[in-house]
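User: Could you go from structure to sequence for me? I need the amino acid at each position, not a summary. Structure tokens:
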């Protein structure tokens, strides 16, 4: 289980940094860990079988509530779909 968690953690961290990046900072390498604190919860959602809607809502909440942005529900859904389809 630990190996699976670590693999998912790495993959989801990459998706959040490269694809989600709601504040547009993924070209600044010195802040590479900007979204890392969100990864463990999302990994747990994935491992517990969360559906696209649940992960979408969580990402949207992060954007709109935690970050204080307008949020983009469609983009969050695209990212959630990528996370759902990950193989570990």
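Assistant: Here is the amino acid at each position, in order:
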């Amino acid at each position: 289980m630990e190996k699976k968690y670590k693999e998912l953690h790495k993959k989801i961290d990459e998706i959040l940094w490269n694809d989600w990046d709601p504040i547009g900072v993924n070209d600044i390498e010195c802040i590479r860990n900007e979204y890392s604190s969100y990864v463990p919860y999302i990994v747990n959602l994935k491992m517990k079988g969360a559906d696209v809607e649940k992960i979408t809502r969580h990402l949207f909440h992060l954007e709109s509530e935690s970050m204080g942005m307008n949020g983009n529900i469609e983009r969050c859904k695209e990212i959630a779909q990528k996370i759902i389809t990950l193989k570990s």
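One structural detail worth keeping in mind: Residues 2-20 form the longest helix (19 residues).
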